[in-house]
Write a structure and sequence with these properties.
The structure holds 2 protein chains of 2 kinds. Chain A is an alpha/beta fold. In chain A, 49% of the residues lie in helices and 18% in strands. Chain A folds into 4 domains: 6-232, Alpha Horseshoe (Serine Threonine Protein Phosphatase 5, Tetratricopeptide repeat), CATH 1.25.40; 247-319, 2-Layer Sandwich (Alpha-Beta Plaits), CATH 3.30.70; 329-441, Phosphotransferase system, mannose-type IIA component (Rossmann fold); 445-547, Hypothetical Protein Tm841, Chain: A,domain 3 (2-Layer Sandwich). In chain A, α1 (9-33) packs antiparallel against α9 (189-205), α5 (108-125) packs antiparallel against α6 (134-150) and α7 packs antiparallel against α9. In chain B, 38% of the residues lie in helices and 26% in strands. In chain B, α3 (66-77) crosses α4 (95-105) and α8 (206-218) runs parallel beside α9. Classes of the chains: A alpha/beta, B alpha/beta.
């Protein structure tokens, strides 16, 4: 049985050697996640090469003294660091070694303290730390480790378990913090890499080495909706700024009396993603620059440069795009939906549509707008959900204008659109899906609450201008001064006895608090119903309600 | 001599059925943090779900060791010359590998055949039950293998998850990724495809989920047997059984509890039907 409370230097080394093997299995998957700071698809590989150098240097030290071994590993990390993520990882090791200074062996408390140090050092190494990256994952993991150690669970296994579980949650949270991840629908690659290393260490400590041969590290799923989504809007034309990425420039500078801080200051304006780390004899520099020559001549004025590399990131980015194209899972059918309001667009996106075309009651998208959404959808079969009776016709023009195979489900409102979308069957072909989805729209009733634009008499109702009116399945059935009162009136008339779920989408002119109160009143009045209140952000309609 | 049938506890074959038919069930190990339990022997399914809901840690499952299989083979070899082992999908667990390694380690004690069912829970459990019935009726191992393959090929699994929380927490969402992060509360309907979990559709309520499961049974011809499984709500399973018993005779419906491996992802409230057609 392996020691899991307290380990010596050699076991510490073996633990991270196992973690490196674990990372190796996942490196291509981590490469594929890479979108920040430059989508060049090499984070996993860079971290792996850095870890390999870390371990190789570690193995040259046969001492069982933990602090001595950690120091050798940190040196190896600095020597072999490659890429942005690799250099940050080397700082993780530098900090860990500092934190383990004078430690003969390592228990949970020592490890937690060293992680804390590692987090501080890693943050310091980066000239402009960004949250939602490996740094955040390290910080969150170290916090959890310290908390566990402080709560009296001082054995290494307990601390490492809490470290890994916090790292996993933190990775899942990265898209919340970093918009570029959210847009790409991925978690941070460097964070994922760090999680994989820690997870590998934990598995080794648990004695799962053998099992690790059959398994593969898991890629953490994002905890926010990560469907990559195109929003087609007729208000603006799409234009992507083409800024070149330049060269990923790296080297090791050796000399006397070097000052990393001074070097960092000098290079700060010469490029992006600058990292300068090391001591007075060895400094590692990493920078994304358009002019590597300038950087090299500055460095050679202070000492000798080693392990020099300048990789063309635009070329790497192209390769990456090609690779992504090949990796993209071909979908048989995708869905394009029309929706007004950011909230509704998000709802549709979270339910898996390929594109949302902006538009609604008074801002009907043109056939061309819808066509653009269709052309961008990643499949030859496309289902369109117009979600408004004034848009159905425009949508029905699309099939004649494209070579793609189109089916329009004539949904006349948002509740019908959502019901159709939910009924989508992943295994069925397009034709069957059109039937299933059209059928599903029949099972939902809808209520819309809006304001009258003029005074009129409809269906025995005397409506004054600007009064709130309520429609049940498209017909005006209630009028009141306040929108929420109209909603209650219409609910009275709605077929609720067989209903199970009421979803209230409140519009941009409606306060969230009013919507919540509304939701609570409905829950009280109809206790057999499950009521959900969602920010739809739609214009004109105070409330759109679906009854299922 | 009767062919001996061996499977793992992931088949979700109830103990009384296994005892009656002489099926050997090899337990997987379920772990919560430091504590490990042999599935069904040291932890009941009820206890498992109770802890799953109560605790923050995600439980893990480990395949049986080759030694466990080897010991079972040795015991059975005293009574028979032929052993057929049917395991859950090799893509989801190392159980198949373990069973195979054990076969090599006891080389020559008798004929041992190991099958990777490519399925989980009762969608292969039903095939194991059918295999045991054939064995007890005197069928030879080759005939049983052919029939079992035919059964597995067309077996269907339709599972309803009452929550997405555990699927997201476990991280192994795979193709069901699109279901996580929905801004509306939706409940996924999943199946197993090519040995892995895959999405079928979504519903918004348990009642709609139960309808979907019933319809899946109603839409299948030539049914031999059906497995109805629940995680924490036996009353839902009873309701399902009552509704499908007009299509499938009650004695061909097996009720069971969803094992911890799938339960870790479904969380409480999940339901599943497995449908096995008669082999042609």
């Amino acid at each position: 049985m392996k020691q899991t409370d307290n380990i010596g230097g050699q076991q510490f080394l073996e633990m991270f050697a196992a973690a490196t093997d674990w990372l190796e299995k996942s490196a291509p998957d981590i490469d594929a996640l890479n979108v920040f700071p430059v989508p060049d698809g090499d984070t996993g590989t860079n971290m792996l090469l850095t870890m390999k150098s870390t371990i190789e240097h570690g193995f040259q030290n046969e001492n069982d003294n933990a602090s001595s071994v950690a120091l050798s590993m940190a040196n190896g990390a600095l020597m072999g660091a490659r890429g942005n993520s690799g250099v940050i990882l080397s700082q993780f090791w530098a900090g860990l070694a500092q934190g383990l200074d004078n430690k003969e062996s390592i228990d949970g408390r020592d490890f937690a303290a060293a992680l804390e140090k590692a987090s501080v050092v890693a943050y310091k190494g980066v000239s402009n730390p960004v949250e939602g990256t490996m740094l955040t994952v390290l910080k969150d993991a170290s916090k959890s480790a310290s908390l566990t150690a402080a709560n009296g669970k001082g054995d290494l296994l307990s601390v490492l378990e809490s470290t890994v579980s916090a790292a996993s949650e933190s990775v899942a949270n990265t898209p919340t913090l970093l918009p570029v991840l959210r847009e790409a629908g991925v978690v941070d690659s460097g964070g994922q890499g760090l999680f994989t290393i820690l997870d590998g260490a934990l598995r080794y400590l648990r004695g799962e080495s053998e099992l690790m041969q059959f398994r593969k590290p898991q890629i953490i799923a994002s905890n926010v909706a990560t469907t990559p989504i195109t929003i087609v809007s007729h208000a603006k034309t799409e234009h992507e700024d083409e800024i070149p990425f330049g060269y990923c420039t790296e080297f090791l500078l050796k000399g006397k009396d070097l000052d990393p801080e001074k070097i960092k200051k000098h290079l700060l304006k010469k490029g992006q993603s600058l990292i300068v780390v090391g001591d007075d004899t060895t400094v590692r520099v990493h920078i994304h620059t358009l002019d590597p020559g300038e950087i090299f001549s500055y460095a050679t004025s202070m000492g000798t440069i080693h392990s020099v590399s300048a990789r063309n990131m635009d070329e790497q980015h192209q390769d990456y795009l090609e690779k992504q194209k090949n990796r993209a899972v071909p979908v048989k059918t995708s869905i394009v939906s029309i929706a007004a309001g950011e909230g509704l667009a998000k709802v549709f996106a979270s339910l898996g549509v390929a594109a949302v075309v902006a538009g609604g009651q008074t801002m009907n998208p043109s056939t061309k707008d819808i066509l653009m959404g269709v052309e961008r959808a990643p499949s030859d079969n496309v289902i369109i959900l117009p979600n408004n009776k004034n848009i159905v016709l425009a949508a029905q023009q699309v099939p004649a204008l494209t070579e793609k195979n189109i089916c329009v489900i004539p949904t006349v409102n948002v509740p019908q659109g959502v019901a159709a979308l939910l009924a989508y069957d992943y295994e069925a072909d397009m034709e069957t899906n059109c039937e299933i989805m059209a059928e599903a729209t029949k099972a939902v009733s809808s209520i819309e609450v809006t304001h009258s634009v003029r005074s009129c008499k409809i269906g025995g109702l005397d409506i004054k201008k600007k009064q709130a009116i309520g429609l049940l399945n498209g017909a005006i059935v209630a009028v009141q001064d306040a929108a929420k009162d109209v909603l209650y009136d219409v609910l009275e008339k709605a077929p609720l006895d067989k209903a199970e779920i009421i979803t209230v989408y409140y519009g941009e002119d409606t306060e969230e608090t009013e919507a919540e109160i509304c939701g609570n009143e409905i829950r009280e009045k109809y206790p057999h119903l499950q009521v959900e209140v969602v920010n739809g952000g739609q214009p004109h309609y105070n409330y759109i309600v679906s009854i299922e | 001599m009767t062919v001996k049938i061996v499977t793992d506890t992931l088949s979700d074959i109830p103990d009384d059925v296994a005892n009656k038919l002489g099926i050997t069930l090899i337990p997987l190990t379920v772990s919560f943090g430091h504590e490990s339990f042999l599935d069904r022997i040291e932890i009941t399914s009820e206890e498992f779900y109770e802890r799953l809901v109560r605790e923050e840690t995600i439980p893990t499952t480990t395949q049986p060791s080759p030694l466990t299989f080897a010991n079972a083979y040795k015991n059975l070899a005293e009574e028979s010359d032929e052993i057929l082992v049917i395991t859950l999908s090799g893509k989801l667990s190392g159980t198949y590998q373990s069973a195979l390694n054990a076969k090599n380690s006891v080389n020559g004690i008798c004929r041992i055949e190991v099958m990777d069912s490519q399925k989980i829970i009762m969608s292969f459990g039903l095939a194991v039950i059918a295999a045991a019935k054939m064995a007890n009726a005197g069928a030879g191992i080759d005939e049983i293998i052919t029939r079992t393959n035919a059964r597995l090929e067309n077996s269907q699994l339709v599972a309803y998850f009452d929550t997405l929380k555990y699927l997201a927490k476990g991280g192994r969402v795979g193709k069901a990724q699109g279901f996580v992060g929905s801004l509306l509360s939706v409940k996924p309907i999943l199946t197993i495809k090519d040995g892995e979990m895959a999405p079928l559709t979504r519903v918004r309520s348990k009642a709609a989920g139960i309808d979907y499961l019933c319809n899946a049974v109603a839409a299948t011809d030539n049914i031999e047997s059906v497995g109805v499984e629940y995680c924490t709500t036996p009353e839902d399973a009873e309701l399902l059984i009552e509704r499908i018993s007009s299509i499938v005779p009650r004695e061909n419906i097996y009720k069971s509890i969803v094992c911890p491996v799938v339960g870790t992802y479904s969380g409480p409230g999940g339901l599943a039907v497995s449908i096995m057609q008669k082999p042609l």
